[in-house]
């Protein structure tokens, strides 16, 4: 049965109950009122007529109108005969009254008339009592029947009220449970409502939906499983160590290389909080530290190996859902780099002596005591001298760089006078300054404290600053060398009004082999990189400020 039909039937049933009770109540009330009305209408009127006739009878001898009143009431009584025996009594009354009219002095008539009126009175009073009894009985019947019907209807309605809501609420509860199960991804859930109503149809629709979801889930699970195995295979085949963390930094996975490097099995630490693992594993502690030590030296494959640490965020819908730590094995690059550094160091070292002797020979050749040269020869000797000088600078820088790269910077740290360092540097560039007619200004503060530094390497840095400043300044340009003490730190600075450096290149200016695009072709791009290594090795810091077209200021601080 359809739900709509059930609801209509339920409401109709309640309607019938109310209607039945109403009809019964109206029926009994009407019956009672008609019975009481009857009493008033017939019997009460007869009593009134009788009383009027008795009063008129008293006055008949004296009052002639009394006969008329008697006659009128007698006629009304004759028209209002309702009780058995009342007709006979009224007929007797009429006969006696007629005799009284014809023989007024017969007093016997008065007695008989009174008796007749009395008997009419009695009949009607008895009828009133009887009808009263009947009305009371009807009221009692009505009370009884209405109580019985009311009780029956109350029982039926109560049963109906108790049971009917469950016709709707039970299937809704079953459906609700089913939906909750589906929401919890239990796609095996089915609903069985053996009903031919809308709920039955809903249950069928629910079951086919669950079936489709089940199929979808199974096919998706298979796909996911396949993708998972594929990615696991790829990750495990990789030469890099890979560790996956969820957003709460719990370990999700690690590949074979990571297992080997950490010395831990995936099954031992999976699901564990990475920081807890780091408490008992140094490498893990290193890996979790962000921002420090990008390159790690780890003993692996029976040798010292180098790994580059990269922490990548895993995102989904622009939200970070985890991290992958990649340990890239850069040992082969390291080995190649080492070979390159060794090669450069050897070559520059081997070249230094012959170049120095070429430079010496060129100086001697230019000496008039050895023999006069013509102008052209003198020019050629000069260019041999200049080139060998440049070659010496380059081999010197390459040697320094190889020292830096192999971590073999030998520092002779001692308390040094900052002014002496400046003078030492200026002396080296004196010739170039004069050649380019540079206007040099020195600002050396009084009473400068001694700095704990390697004089040679520090003045090398200043020379590099000055050489660059001269190179990138126009002829007759201005260079300002200053030394001052700021908060117990001594600052050495070289400022020029040359072409300056574009802001975007400034962060890379101290990188190895970096040259600003379009700047002079000569030079290795190593000078500033070596300078930084020298200064930082002494515990100082190095900086550059520049504006394109307005010049540059390079400075370092030592204490
Ligand atoms: P290089 O030996 O080639 O001069 P550096 O490391 O000393 O190498 O300098 C790197 C680059 O920085 C240079 O190629 C040059 O473009 C730029 N540079 C350095 N000093 C100055 C300066 N005073 N003015 C403008 N550019 C400069």
Briefly summarize what is shown.
The chain has 559 residues and is α+β, with helices and mostly antiparallel strands. It has helices at 3-59, 65-78, 86-102, 108-183, 198-237, 256-262, 266-269, 274-279, 282-288, 331-365, 375-405, 418-435, 455-471, 527-537; strands spanning 241-246, 251-254, 295-300, 303-316, 319-329, 414-416, 439-444, 451-453, 478-486, 489-496, 541-547, 551-558.
How would you describe this structure to a colleague?
By secondary structure, the protein is an alpha+beta fold. It has helices spanning 3-59, 65-78, 86-102, 108-183, 198-237, 256-262, 266-269, 274-279, 282-288, 331-365, 375-405, 418-435, 455-471, 527-537; strands spanning 241-246, 251-254, 295-300, 303-316, 319-329, 414-416, 439-444, 451-453, 478-486, 489-496, 541-547, 551-558. Strands 2-1-5-4-3 form a five-stranded antiparallel sheet. Strands 7-9-10-12-11 form a five-stranded mixed sheet. Strands 6-8 form a two-stranded antiparallel sheet. Helix 4 (108-183) runs parallel beside helix 5 (198-237), helix 10 runs antiparallel to helix 11 and helix 11 (375-405) crosses helix 14 (527-537). The longest helix has 76 residues, at 108-183. It is rod-shaped, with a radius of gyration of 64 Å. The structure holds adenosine-5'-diphosphate. The site of adenosine-5'-diphosphate (ADP) has 21 residues, from helix 13 and helix 14.
């Amino acid at each position: 049965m359809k739900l709509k039909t059930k609801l209509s039937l339920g409401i109709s049933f309640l309607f019938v109950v109310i209607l039945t009770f109403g009809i019964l109540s109206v029926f009994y009330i009407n019956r009672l009122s008609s019975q009481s009305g009857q009493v008033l209408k017939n019997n009460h009127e007869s009593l009134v007529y009788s009383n009027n006739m008795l009063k008129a009878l008293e006055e008949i001898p004296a009052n002639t109108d009394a006969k008329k009143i008697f006659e009128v009431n007698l006629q009304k009584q004759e028209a209002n005969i309702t009780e058995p025996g009342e007709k006979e009594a009224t007929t007797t009354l009429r006969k006696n009254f007629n005799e009284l009219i014809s023989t007024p002095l017969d007093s016997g008539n008065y007695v008989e008339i009174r008796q007749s009126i009395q008997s009419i009175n009695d009949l009607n009073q008895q009828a009133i009592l009887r009808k009263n009894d009947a009305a009371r009985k009807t009221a009692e019947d009505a009370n009884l029947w209405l109580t019985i019907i009311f009780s029956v209807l109350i029982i039926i309605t109560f049963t109906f009220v108790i049971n009917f809501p469950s016709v709707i609420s039970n299937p809704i509860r079953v459906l609700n449970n089913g939906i909750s199960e589906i929401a919890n991804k239990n796609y095996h859930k089915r609903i069985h409502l053996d009903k031919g109503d809308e709920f039955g149809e809903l249950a069928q629709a629910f079951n086919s939906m669950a079936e489709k979801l089940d199929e979808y889930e199974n096919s998706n699970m298979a796909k996911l499983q396949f993708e998972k195995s594929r990615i696991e295979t790829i990750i495990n085949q990789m030469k890099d160590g890979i560790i996956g963390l969820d957003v709460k930094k719990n370990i999700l996975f690690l590949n074979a290389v990571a297992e080997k490097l950490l010395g831990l099995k995936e099954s031992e630490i999976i699901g564990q909080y990475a920081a807890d693992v780091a408490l008992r594993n140094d490498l893990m502690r290193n890996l979790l530290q962000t921002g420090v030590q990008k390159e790690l030296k780890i003993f692996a494959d029976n040798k010292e190996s180098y790994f580059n640490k990269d922490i990548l965020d895993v995102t989904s819908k622009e939200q970070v859902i985890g991290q992958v730590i990649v340990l890239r094995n850069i040992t082969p690059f390291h080995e190649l780099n080492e070979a390159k550094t060794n090669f450069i160091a050897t070559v520059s070292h081997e070249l230094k002596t012959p170049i120095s002797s070429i430079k010496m020979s060129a100086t001697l050749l230019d000496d008039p005591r050895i023999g006069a040269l013509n102008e052209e020869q003198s020019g050629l000797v000069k260019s041999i001298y200049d080139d060998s000088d440049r070659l010496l600078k380059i081999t010197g820088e390459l040697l320094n760089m190889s020292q830096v790269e192999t971590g073999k910077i030998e520092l002779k740290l001692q308390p040094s006078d900052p002014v002496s360092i400046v003078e030492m540097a200026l002396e080296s560039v004196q010739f170039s300054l004069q050649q380019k007619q540079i206007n040099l200004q020195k600002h050396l503060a009084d009473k400068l404290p001694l700095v704990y530094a390697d004089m040679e390497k520090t003045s090398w840095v200043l020379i590099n600053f000055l050489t660059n400043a001269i190179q990138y300044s126009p002829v007759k340009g201005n260079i300002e060398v200053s030394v001052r003490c700021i908060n117990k730190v001594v600052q050495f600075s070289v400022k020029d009004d040359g072409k300056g450096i574009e802001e975007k290149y400034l962060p890379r200016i101290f990188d190895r082999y970096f040259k600003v695009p379009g700047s002079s072709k000569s030079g290795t791009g190593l000078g500033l990189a070596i300078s930084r290594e020298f200064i930082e090795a002494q515990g100082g810091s190095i900086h550059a400020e520049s504006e394109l077209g307005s010049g540059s200021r390079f400075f370092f601080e030592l204490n």
